[in-house]
Amino acid sequence: MQNDKPILSISGVTKRFGASVTAVDDVSLDIREGEFFALLGPSGCGKTTLLRMIAGFEVPSEGAILLEGADISATPPNRRPINMVFQSYAVFPHMSVFDNVAYGLKVAGTPRGEIRAKVEEALSLVKLDGFAARKPDQLSGGQRQRVALARALVKRPKILLLDEPLSALDAKLREAMQLELTRLQKSVGITFIIVTHDQGEALSMADRIAVMEAGRVRQVAEPEVLYSRPNCRFVADFIGKINLFMARVVRAEGDLLHLESDALGHVDLPCPEAMAHPAPGSQITLAVRPENFRLGGEAGADDLHIPGRITDHAYFGGHSSLFVEDKAGNSITVSVQNGPSMLSEADKCDSLHIFCSKKDVLILPE
Amino acid sequence: MDSWRRSPLFFWIIGLPPVGWLAIFFLLPLSLIWLISFGEKQGIVDVALTWTLDNYARAMESIYLEILLKSIVMAVAITVICLVVAFPVALLISFAPRRVKPWLLLLIVLPFWTNLLIRTYALIAVLRVRGYINFSLEWLWTQANAALSFAGLGQYQLLGARFEPLELLYNNFAVAFGLVYVFLPFMVLPLYAALERLDRSMIEASLDLGAGQVRTFFSVVVPMAASGIVSGVIITFIPALGSFLQPELLGGTDSQLIANVIERQFKSANDWPFGAALSFILMYLTFFALALRSLLAKGKSAMEAA
């Protein structure tokens, strides 16, 4: 189903509101046909504005949006083969579920007989069989969202846009909907673009994610790449939890950097391919995920070890976060799987060593 | 402390003045008028309560029924015109930038701060033969004539030998004009309130699903503003049905509405029983319209539930 042909090309798109606000700043993205793409970022990063430009509710100040090679930047929303599920769902309260789903077909002049079959098919796709006669005020929030989903899918759009679709649902329902949305996307084969501020949502659902900050795209990658090889400090910090350490470049020997950090001590690391070789004496950031630290045990040959003591811990059921303070007073978060003896043992140690493998230390340019 | 709802003393202290006001100044006089409508005139000022139905029978005479019918037609027309004119105005205000909105609302409410009589007399100055509309038309006529003369067509008198002012005052048009002018804000405000509550993403969803602007307006905006339309229609129709100042001041001899007839009974004709009977017929009609409306609303929701 999925291939590398871009269905949607966003090229150099900028959106300014008034003279002072630049919501989206020179964004270029290629979205492949049939993929589940996520726009991820904190609130105010411009992801919703970008989505609204794809839908046609905003016109780019600069740049172009190409759908299958054709410029649609100035096409009004009702002439785009793109449909949207709104954050508020925007299910028409004065129409039954059936009429809501049929609306887009009626407007397009689909024959009556066809409408009936298509609406029923769409409703069963979102598991709302038998709800056709209900009014929106007789539905729960989750059911209303399914109506919004069916209403958009019944139009068989080239691209389906979802604006924070799960933010209004409670935690349990949200998790179930995440699975269902991915299942649905695979079964209908339509390109989905979802906007979310929830990194867990993006990581679990999307094939690829664009992380946005202050109107710009910082990194576009698969979830695993984004998590294990973030390309900047912002992405590393935004996706999951991470420990950041300042380090000074002592010297560079070919691709090998000799670094000095007050928390990690002396480290030799290969310079990442995408990064220009830093000058000796310059500052860079090192990052280690909490789960890449180990407590106690034997240190391997390639391991870094940090002496410290546990100041606090937080229990999360399956795992715990330990807050370790090193000699220099830096606080390091360590995530451990909770075994029967783990915590009690760790609790006892007032001074301990934590280890991490060199290959788990990330070098971030910013 | 107990909830104030459960404290009877507090409830009575708060509740008594408005209830008393309503009883003394509304229910009591209304009951008196109701009784008078079953009475007979005796001498110049006295009314004897004889439980006669003659007043109601007289109200059914064709001359009064015709005026009543005309009043209803007029009130319906006023309401429809107000609705058609007010909807775009309300839409414009609700979509205006946040900073401009209060000023536009102020413009709508501003006429309320001026006395109705003064506003109606001002309309006379606008509409009369030597009023502002005719002055403007005459000016246009003169300019057009000058332009024609300049073009060498002056001798043909294409626009007539002299300017004929329009007869805008003292007819049914003037009454309708005056009533629409007075009741427009009553229609704009509830419509505005309903449109202001309308979630903008509903409109976007309709566009997104392929509907054009016109389709979106009639399929989404109008039905979702239904509550505002209903309140606007009610608070326009009822006072329009009972209006007497505009027909009196702006209307001609054929512009009398039912309220003028009622007013005449109480004043110049000095026939309180008949005036009272007409008043109550008008009131029953209003009640009937309201009951019909709520019955329709109930039937509609029952149909939807089924």
Write the layout of secondary structure elements.
The complex is a heterodimer of chains A (366) and B (306).
Chain A: E1 6-17, E2 21-32, E3 36-40, H1 47-55, E4 62-67, E5 70-71, E6 82-85, H2 97-107, H3 112-125, H4 141-153, E7 159-163, H5 171-188, E8 191-196, H6 199-205, E9 208-213, E10 216-221, H7 223-228, H8 233-238, E11 243-253, E12 256-261, E13 265-270, E14 283-288, E15 293-295, E16 303-315, E17 319-326, E18 331-337, H9 342-348, E19 352-357, E20 362-364
Parallel strand pairs in A: 3-8, 3-9, 6-7, 7-8
Antiparallel strand pairs in A: 1-2, 1-4, 4-5, 9-10, 11-12, 11-14, 12-13, 14-20, 15-19, 16-17, 16-19, 17-18
Helix pairs in contact in A: 2-3, 2-4, 3-4
Chain B: H1 8-36, E1 39-42, E2 46-49, H2 54-59, H3 62-95, H4 101-109, H5 116-127, H6 132-150, H7 172-197, H8 200-208, H9 213-224, H10 226-241, H11 245-250, H12 258-266, H13 272-305
Antiparallel strand pairs in B: 1-2
Descriptive overview:
The complex is a heterodimer of chains A (366) and B (306). Chain A is of the alpha+beta class. Chain A has helices spanning 47-55, 97-107, 112-125, 141-153, 171-188, 199-205, 223-228, 233-238, 342-348, and strands spanning 6-17, 21-32, 36-40, 62-67, 70-71, 82-85, 159-163, 191-196, 208-213, 216-221, 243-253, 256-261, 265-270, 283-288, 293-295, 303-315, 319-326, 331-337, 352-357, 362-364. In chain A, the strands form 4 sheets. A 6-stranded mixed β-sheet of chain A has the order 6-7-8-3-9-10, with helices on both faces. Chain A has a 5-stranded antiparallel β-sheet with strand order 13-12-11-14-20. A 5-stranded antiparallel β-sheet of chain A has the order 15-19-16-17-18. In chain A, strand 11 (243-253) and strand 12 (256-261) form a beta hairpin. In chain A, helix 2 (97-107) packs parallel to helix 4 and helix 3 (112-125) crosses helix 4 (141-153). Chain B has 306 residues and is an all-alpha fold. Chain B has a domain at 53-128 and 168-305: Orthogonal Bundle (MetI-like fold), CATH 1.10.3720. Chain B is 72% helix and 3% strand. The longest helix of chain B is centred in the first third of the chain and has 34 residues, at 62-95. Chains A and B meet through strand 6, helix 2 and helix 4 of A and helix 8 and helix 9 of B.
